[in-house]
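Form P-L/3: holo structure prediction, ligand cytidine-5'-monophosphate.
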Amino acid sequence: MKIAIDGPAGAGKSTVAKMVADKLGYLYVDTGAMYRALTWKALHDNVDISSGEALVRLLNQCRLELQSDSASQRVVLNGRDITEAIRTREVSNHVSEVASHPQVREAMVELQREMATKGNVVMDGRDIGTYVIPDADVKIYLTASLEERARRRYEELRVKGHEVSFEEIKQEILERDDKDRKRDTAPLQKAADALTVDTTGLSITEVVNCILNIVHQKT
Ligand code: C5P
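OUTPUT (holo model):
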């Protein structure tokens, strides 16, 4: 069984997808974390992120691991745990440019498709149902109002001790979605056969149960 969860920034995909995968005992693949990891490494090593070629060269030198257990999901690059480092605003504000390069996407999609062959999987991202695994058994388009998505991001950053402005966060989310929707290669869009789940006003448990119900109807 393959479950694809796509949607705009801050819709809660990673949290929900991980919980769904745990409940079902499936592998969880956070494809956004893969693009974020490459972005973090490029910024860290001063690699030009306007060059798709340079980014692919960098990716080929990296050993990227997504380690998932029931408690957490860790992102490890060349043996270094960068789970927290890839969630900064700096990475968020550069990742769409990195992910817009066709060569970068080609290399990432190859890795993702390989992971999807390993058995039951929940994969989340922007192009999973439309491009990475178009034959997925269940496709969910997870969304929420812009206000709610911005509020969640804002609170997440505040809890981590960051002084941020709500309006700035909202603007950044809007810009990232815009870039992800307008890029030429595999842009963010709802697959024709995806079910939309609007999480505005819903708790995480409610969203997880809603997706589990959809999955159970398919089995
Ligand atoms: O899901 P998350 O917000 O962590 O994704 C970060 C970024 O990675 C997205 O804004 C998008 O630019 C890129 N991405 C993508 N395709 C995916 C997953 C993420 O282009 N399948």
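COMMENT: The chain has one domain: 2-206.
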